[in-house]
Amino acid sequence: MGCFWQFTFATLTSRRSNVNAYPLRNILFVLLIVALAISACGPAAAVPTATPTAPPATPTQAPPRKLVLMSHDSFNASEEVIAEFEQANNAKVEFLKAGDAGKALNQAILSKNNPLADVFFGVDNTFFSRAIDADIFEAYQPKGLENITDTFKLDPRFRLTPIDWGDVCLNYDKRYFEQKGLQPPTTLEDLVKPEYKGLLVVENPATSSPGLAFLLTTVAHFGPDKYLDFWKALRENDVTITEGWEDAYYGQFSGGSGSQGDKPIVVSYATSPPAEVYFSEGKLTEPPTAAVIGDDTCFRQIEFAGILKGTKNRDLAEKFMDFLISTRFQEDVPLQMFVFPVNREARLPEVFVKFAQIAPKPAQLSPEEIGANRDKWIEAWTDTMLH
């Protein structure tokens, strides 16, 4: 358009004063020139251009895969530790807590044809043979097994892998014995002496994991034929029996922080004293309780985990098993569940180093012997102590 207006303005202006002097043919000639000029100044022929293309799409990460961990109610782990596994494996871990160790295992067995989870945590050596006989676990050898002491590896096929361990022992109220001028018990036999009459609280082995562990301690120490004689003597010495650990420790025991009872001896864990210090949040510099760790007075519990048969996430379950015995997870275990890690490379927290006690010679029973006789021993105990 600029070319057209420049041309016509110049041409017509130069001839404006003389337009009447031109004949018609001259006017037509001028119009022809204008038309040619317009054609010459028109838009240039279109140049083909490439069709714009969208920028390449940024790869999107697949949604995280869900891994379900079934366990007893006491399982715990730091959120940041679990988050590290999730981030490294694009996973989301869901927790299915299913009651105490025995109840959780029973649920896993009952649902074996349609498993509720991918991995199970919480089989201990008191239920080990039941779990193996039920055939609900897939064999897998996690990475890092070389860092685990062989005595914890009870299954050569690694359907169950050891994760943690701890000693169930008698705990006593240090202040009570100091004030009374009485020596704390050092053997099981001490518990039936007159000076300890009415001082002991224990848990029912039919409903409590530490209660069962203590029953097994007495079977191992006195023998299958004489352990009931010991229990009869305890009954005569006014032993108190509760359904679970919490009632025994916080309701009947006198030594724990927040305990409301008057019994200075309780069946608990050798790691209960450091737990007292840790949960005092600086108020205690040493525990108010101590564990009795004489020969045959404690029972060593080992906890295991395994991949449940029928999982649809076998590869992710394997990675989680690797993670459970890794140093990162194992160092989280002590202050989350107050048990010891099985990984020798895991460092213990200071409160464990200072105050945790380890039984040098705990009572010994094989998982096979326990599995073959556990129910019979519990039934006989119930008839002796509760009927």
Overview in brief:
By secondary structure, this protein is an alpha/beta fold.
Structure description:
- Helix 3 links the parallel strand 1 and strand 2.
- The protein has two domains: 150 residues, Periplasmic binding protein-like II (D-Maltodextrin-Binding Protein, domain 2); 155 residues, Periplasmic binding protein-like II (D-Maltodextrin-Binding Protein, domain 2, 3-Layer(aba) Sandwich).
- It is of the alpha/beta class and 387 residues long.
- Helix 1 runs antiparallel to helix 2, helix 7 crosses helix 15 and helix 8 packs parallel to helix 15.
- The protein is 39% helix and 16% strand.
- Domain count, please report it: 2
CATH superfamily of the largest domain: Periplasmic binding protein-like II
What is the approximate shape? globular
Which strand-content bin applies to the residues? 15-25%
Query: What class do helices, strands and sheet pairing give?
Result: alpha/beta
CATH-defined topology of the largest domain: D-Maltodextrin-Binding Protein, domain 2
Helix content: 25-40%
Strand segment count: 11
Rg over C-alpha atoms, rounded to the nearest angstrom = 40 Å
Taking pLDDT < 50 over at least 5 consecutive residues as the criterion, the unreliable ranges are: 1-50
Rounded to the nearest angstrom, the distance between the terminal CA atoms is 114 Å
Total helical elements = 15
